[in-house]
Amino acid sequence: MVARSLARRMKELERQTCGAKKWHVIIRRAGQTEEEAVAAYEADHGPIGPDDGSMLWVIVRKPNPRPAACVA
Questions:
Q1: pLDDT of 27-48, one tens digit each?
Q2: How far is 44 from 14, CA to CA, in rounded Å?
Q3: Which helix (H) or strand (E) covers residue 63, if one does?
Q4: Distances (CA, A) of 71 to 15, 64, 67
Q5: Residues contacting residue 28 through CB under 8 Å, at least 6 positions apart
Q6: Position 8 pLDDT exceeds 80
Q7: Per-residue DSSP letters for 13-30?
Q8: Using an 8 Å Cβ cutoff, are 23 and 55 in contact?
Q9: Is the distance from CB of 34 to CB of 56 less than 8 angstroms?
Q10: Which residue stretches of the chain are H helix?
Q11: 3-class secondary-structure state, position 52
Q12: Could you tell me which of 23, 69, 45 has the C-alpha nearest to residue 37?
């Protein structure tokens, strides 16, 4: 009985949008501009809507302190 009630309430909550924005996480890799990163994201996931939110993550590689020849 409780499980059925919980399942029904979960379905109702999942159906509601509550005005929440859809968020997109965009990863900008080394050598990419922000525009290129957004274009690559949209090519894979579809266009970002005008009311959607987005977060841009910039991936930065830490430079190797020693050249590869010195690593044992």
A1: 998 889 999 999 999 999 999 9
A2: 25
A3: none
A4: 56, 10, 7
A5: 34, 36, 37, 56, 57, 58, 59
A6: yes
A7: HHH--TTPPPEEEEEEPT
A8: yes
A9: yes
A10: 2-15, 34-45
A11: coil
A12: 45
